[in-house]
Amino acid sequence: MVSAKYWKLNEDKQPVECGLLEWGEFFRDDEKRRVAYTQTEHFEVSTVFLGIDHNFRRNGPPILFETMIFNRAVAGATDTDMREILKGADCFRYASWDDAETGHATAVRRVLLAESFPAAEIERFLADMPENLARHFLDLLPSK
């Protein structure tokens, strides 16, 4: 099954295939494609409709929504700090609006947890987790 190249959302927030011009017109209004946006003390969490399938394996449903977590501590960084900006972002993708809303709420809970505990307590909490998961979570902590 080959996915459509371009997608827009209908009135029920369901993705529908469309042509390039229709897609471009839909994307003129950022609010139509914004699922959720949350600012915390150290992070910004943004979830949007992408309009282009990010399921590059082409098996399963099209992946059309994305949540990104940005570390606000590096948001004003210069070009020389680009590595820090990229390290401060995390990305999660979904096939539906409902999954994107759920994913956004989960991402917000993650950053609120990261903000609420000293790093040493989080390290103890994550000590029994697989190393890759613990490292991934600790990367979300704001720079001190």
Number of self-contained structural domains: 1
Summed over residues and divided by their number, the pLDDT gives a mean of: 78
CA-based gyration radius = 17 Å
Share in helix: 25-40%
By oligomeric state, this entry counts as single chain
How many beta strands in the DSSP annotation?
Answer: 6
**Largest sheet entry:** 4 strands, antiparallel
Query: Strands of the largest sheet, in order across it?
Result: 3-4-5-6
In whole angstroms, the N-to-C terminal distance is 48 Å
Tally of alpha and pi helices: 6
Low-confidence stretches: 77-88
What fraction strand?
Answer: 15-25%
**Could you give the order of the helices and strands?**
EEHHEEEHEHHH
How would you describe the shape? elongated
What class, by secondary structure content? alpha+beta
Question: What's the SSE blueprint?
Answer:
Elements: E1 6-9, E2 15-18, H1 20-26, H2 30-33, E3 34-39, E4 43-49, E5 65-71, H3 82-87, E6 89-94, H4 97-116, H5 119-125, H6 131-138
Antiparallel strand pairs: 1-2, 3-4, 4-5, 5-6
In short:
With 144 residues, this protein is of the alpha+beta class. It has helices at residues 20-26, 30-33, 82-87, 97-116, 119-125, 131-138; strands spanning 6-9, 15-18, 34-39, 43-49, 65-71, 89-94.
Give your account of this protein's structure.
This protein is α+β, with helices and mostly antiparallel strands and 144 residues long. It has one domain. It is 36% helix and 24% strand. It is built from 6 helices and 6 strands. It has helices spanning 20-26, 30-33, 82-87, 97-116, 119-125, 131-138, and strands at residues 6-9, 15-18, 34-39, 43-49, 65-71, 89-94. It has a 4-stranded antiparallel beta sheet. Strands 1-2 form a two-stranded antiparallel ribbon. A hairpin with a 3-residue loop joins β3 (34-39) and β4. It is elongated and about 50 Å long. Residues 77-88 have low confidence and may be disordered.
